Amino acid sequence: MNRVTSGLSILAEAMLIVLLACFVAASPRAESVKPAVAKSPPPAVKGTDTDGSRAYPQSTSGAACREAQFTVSRLQADVARLTEWHDAIDSLFKGTLSSDVSLENLFITDLRGVADPRTNARALGEPDGWPKTVSCDALLAGYQATHDDLIWLRQQIYRQQQRVWTQMPEDFREELRQIWASRQRLVKQFEQVSGQLEKQNDKPSQTVLAALRTIHGRLQRVRLSMLGVVPDLNQGVTVEKSRAFFELWSLAIKAKPAGMLASESELAALPAELQSGIRDYMVLARLDAIELRSVLNLVRAILWKSPDGVFRATAREAAGGRWNLLIIETQAVRHRLDRLLSEVGQDYQQDASAEASYTRIAVTALKTLLGLAAIVLLARIARALATPALRLHAHLSDRVRGNRIATQLSRVGAGLPTLLPWLAGWFGLDLLGWFFYRYEFVFLVPAIPLARLYIVYGVGTLLGEWLVLRIAQQAGSYLNAEQSALLETRAHQAAAVVMLPWLLGDLVNIAIGSSQLLDVCVQARELAAFVAIGILLRTREQDLVKALQSVLPPHIDPWVERVLRGQLFWLTGPLAVLPLLAVFGVAFVNRAMLDVDWYRKLYARGFRLRAQTSKAAESTESEADELRLSDYNRWFEPDSLAEGPLIDTGLGAAIIDSMSPWLADKSEENTLVLTGERGIGKSSMLLQLGKELEKNYPGIRVLQLEVPAKTTSPEAVRSLIGELLGTDLGEGPAALVKADAERQPSIVILDNAHGFFLRRVGGLDGWQTLLGLTNARLANIFWLIVINNQSLAYLGNVFRRDYQFSRILRARPWTQNEIRSLIMSRHKRSRFRIRYDDVLLASRGPEAGNVRNAEQRYFSLLWDACRGNPLLALRLWISSLRADGGTVVVGLPAQPSTTALESLPDDFHFVYAALVIHENMTAEELVSVTAMGDGVIRAALKTAQDTGFVQRTAGGRYRLEPIWYPSVRSLLGRKNMLHE
């Protein structure tokens, strides 16, 4: 119970204070965790009594002063408790703390993790819970001084807690618990043995006592130095701190408690009971040294991994060089092994009874058997995963057949079922290793690297066989049965070379973690892998030479043969694998991603850049070859798109699907706009669409009309459509409505509807007339309007798109396979043979002369250049051909340069923008649309014809050359001259 101020003059007042103090002691606030140590007085402060409580005036009569006195008593109780706590922490750093104090009492924290700061604040006596002043003038000064003492004590304790415990890593706190438990056992045993030796009072006893004190003092100095040095490192690593820690770590590593003990003859002169106690103490001292080394080594491993490298450089310097540092780290590995083997001995020291010892031995044996059973079970499970994985992969491959990307992904994962057992075993061993270390399966912790070594051996063998087979494939050679058997033997031998360095590295990593010794083991592992590759490839030397030559320029072939022969092979052979691995990786990505559109474009452009640096075969066409090529080209004229065979891109099905509600008489919506860029295949698809509609819907007429160029007056529009429908449209839409009931259901297809307008004042009357007709409520007419995408974009900015048409269908660009089918189907009808230029054929390696790969390269280039436009693809195909007798030789598709176009005046660009929007125009129409002079228009058209990107038709209309269309559109789009 808290002490109160003695010598009060009034007995009743003293009794009241005593009763109030008892009440406070029984309240929950007075219940606090307090170190179980002898009470030491707080620091001497002016105005305090010798017992640590502050002296107050004796005259404190009155109710206000009695209440203030009660508050002062409570405050003094908290100050006394915090003083004892502060002194206990100080004694910890001085090494005088009693052996019966636990970490729970010292740090007020849950040993399983970091404490809640608010819990600490309450346990430390949160100052905010106290009033700032009291209502008694006689006690005010003393109260405020005591309150200041409380705040100071709380800050000091909280600072030490943060420094030593809360801010430290969890691994360090866990090791600190072990050190504390070891320290407690050691101190109790030392106090017992030293007390007995002091009573003997003879020379052998004093000699042994001096040795024990030396051992105990050295361990205590290491422990106290650790508590001072390690928390400082958490605030930042410097050269001075690193040197101090390294000296402490090396001192702990070199410490040998057993070597400091007195001679065996002097120990034999002591009583048998005392000898047993001394030996027990030496066992505990050895265990304590091991625990200290363990926590210091943990901190050393963390410092070694720091990216700044301060500790690494300081450690090498302080050790006197790398070699001396390796010696010390080797000793640390041996001490770590001692710790693993000392766990059973430690348990024995905790309870030395025979029955308890036998029980712990039985428990350890049972844990070991269970751990071995877990390893065996893991091996069986991992081995059993191979068959289900193969079945699952086969099932998924069947399910995704037809999906290009999913099929490629299934091919990428084809090797996973083979590797899955090894991967499962590896990750399973990592989990078991953590479990064994966490729950102290002592003898099984070193078994994890041994089990992992088997996985390294198996995976190394598989990788070695794969590497040799892949190099042989790159070299164009294939292994027979005898060579395959020899390869398997060599792969096992190469994998065995790596095993010893790998095992040593694993053991060092488990023992001391990141260190100079581990770096050496990693380097030894890399060197062993280097030698293993040399052993593996030595018998396939010629294959390695050919494989490397296939990926390097031909002019260095003699150098390749020179450096990969003789004794140099052991050095150059493994190095030659590096560029081959890069080539294998690129080939793997290429095969996996070639069905992805964006990768095809990237691949095509990369190949074009490479091809531009090489020289294609010179063209030596004769006049007869030119005639043959002209005969061949007729199969690829734009008009041939309307002829067979037609390529189904799904556009016709999409149009019929949009019409189906009207065809089924379930919707009054009777308009559909089909749009797309020029040459996308709209017109050629319409012929096939009409045949299909007439076949599947015999009761419906299909009326198709190609709008003549620039039919822009209302009269011309009504006359044109009226003639198609057989109805006089002089009255406009009303005439359509009157005759609708008697009309046979009809689908009206208006192709090239951009001919209904001109981009000038009064030029939109024809389009507005068309809108009036299509907006009429008709039950027996369905309008299909086909228009250029640039024209529709312009009209959409003039009129609201929703106002014009509610449904718009956009023709998508063709895929690479569709472009290839279009060209190859027409090529077969020509009866010409095909050959690819050398620039497309690989001249070396396993793909040398591979026509299929050359064809894939070409159509990737073609598809990227035409951007999915079939008309442009046909023109680019023709531009990349030359004739050689009855054979067409395919080179790189030609793409025009836009350098000359970009240098032209903006006025010329406005003229070309009008051509893009209207698709085709006369010179007079260009004058009216652009509001430019006739001279400017004619100069722009002449320049374009001379450059080659504008052609003049027989009817005097100008239009862009298809092969130039993407370049011109891209330029005008960057200048914001187009509407899409």
Summarize the structure.
By secondary structure, this protein is mainly alpha-helical.
Descriptive report:
The chain is elongated and about 140 Å long. Helices cover 65% and strands 5% of the residues. It is mainly α and 980 residues long. It folds into 6 domains: 11-166, no CATH class; 170-352; 446-594, no CATH class; 597-612 and 621-638 and 816-890, no CATH class; 650-810, Rossmann fold (3-Layer(aba) Sandwich); 899-974, Winged helix-like DNA-binding domain superfamily/Winged helix DNA-binding domain (Arc Repressor Mutant, subunit A, Orthogonal Bundle), CATH 1.10.10. The model is unreliable at 1-52, 109-126, 347-353 and 613-621 (pLDDT under 50).
Content-based structural category? mainly alpha
Number of helical segments with 4 or more residues: 40
Taking all residues together, what is the mean pLDDT?
78
Give me the count of strands. 10
Strand order in space, largest sheet: 2-3-4-1-5
N-to-C span? 90 Å
Supply Rg: 47 Å
Shape: elongated
What brief labels describe this structure?
980 residues; mainly alpha; five-stranded parallel beta sheet; three-stranded mixed beta sheet; 5% strand; disordered N terminus
Secondary structure: elements and pairs:
Blueprint (H helix, E strand, L loop, with lengths): L10 H16 L36 H32 L8 H5 L9 H7 L13 H30 L3 H31 L2 H31 L5 H16 L9 H5 L3 H33 L5 H10 L2 H20 L1 H8 L3 H31 L1 H14 L4 H9 L3 H23 L8 H29 L5 H31 L4 H22 L3 H11 L5 H7 L5 H25 L3 H16 L10 H11 L17 H13 L7 E6 L5 H15 L4 E6 L7 H12 L7 H7 L6 E6 L13 H10 L6 E8 H10 L2 H4 L3 E3 L5 H15 L2 E4 L14 H16 L3 H10 L1 E4 L2 E4 L8 H4 L3 H13 L4 H8 L3 H14 L2 E3 L5 E3 L4 H10 L6
